[in-house]
Each structure stands twice: as structure tokens, then as C-alpha cells.
Write a structure and sequence with these properties.
This is RidA family protein. The chain is of the alpha+beta class. The chain contains two helices and six strands. A six-stranded mixed sheet has the order 1-2-3-6-4-5, covered by helices on one side.
Length: 126
């Protein structure tokens, strides 16, 4: 059985998908871009601020499902420019305990939704 997880504290989907789906004890969170959920505006021009907003959107969805970043077992980061990896990684790392951080991949892509610089998705288990 699946349960749709949604919160106004993260951006509404911009297509035919949901913010997250809970199936059993596993939460699948759709990719989050640096969009402010209150204004609908994109955070632009500073990859650290963009990454922080994406992570805050993920945090809001995790919280709505009764979870935290400690529940995350897998993360996927998509970036437009791998040269920004260190700055993205610095912000991303601040949300996790190094000893219990999830598995992850970081992939450079040609473009992302709304032409943002970073998008992050996660899988969490309760």
C-alpha cells in the first residue's frame, strides 16, 4: 500500500508526480530543486544557497513523514556543473552525521527542471 506525502513547506510538484510516496516503511522523495515554497521563486546565483534550499525542501518532506535526515539511506544529487561539487558537498554534509551518512551518487547533467543548478532526491526508511 502506498501513501502520498505532501506538505506546503516544500514546493508543489511541477508535473504529474508527488513530493513523496511512502510504501511500507520506505519513503521515496522526488527531486527537490532550490525553489522557495512560500514564494515559488527560485534561489539563484549562489550554489550554496541553492543547495541549502533544496535540502530544506527535503527536510520539510521528511518531517511531514515523521522522519529526519537520519532516516535517509540513499541520496541522488544532480548538478549542472561538477566544478561546483565541493560547495554543494559542504552544504549537503552539514545535514548529516558523517558516521551514518547515506549512500549517494552525484551526477553531472546537461539541464534540470526550470534550468536550476542542483536537484536532490532521497530514499528514507523508518
Amino acid at each position: 500500500m502506498k501513501k502520498i506525502i505532501t506538505t506546503k513547506k516544500a514546493p508543489a510538484p511541477i508535473g504529474p508526480y508527488n513530493q513523496a510516496v511512502l510504501s511500507g516503511n520506505t519513503l521515496y522523495i522526488s527531486g527537490q530543486i532550490p525553489m522557495n515554497p512560500g514564494t515559488g521563486n527560485l534561489i539563484e546565483g549562489d550554489i550554496k544557497a541553492e543547495t541549502k534550499q533544496s535540502m530544506e525542501n527535503l527536510k520539510a518532506i521528511l518531517n511531514e513523514a515523521g522522519m529526519t535526515f537520519e532516516n535517509v539511506v540513499k541520496a541522488s544529487i544532480f548538478v549542472k556543473d561538477m566544478h561546483q561539487f565541493n560547495a554543494i558537498n559542504e552544504v549537503y554534509a552539514s545535514y548529516f552525521n558523517t558516521d551514518t551518512a547515506p549512500a549517494r551518487e552525484t551526477v553531472e547533467v546537461a539541464n534540470l527542471p526550470k534550468f536550476v543548478n542542483v536537484e536532490i532526491s532521497m530514499i528514507a526508511v523508518n
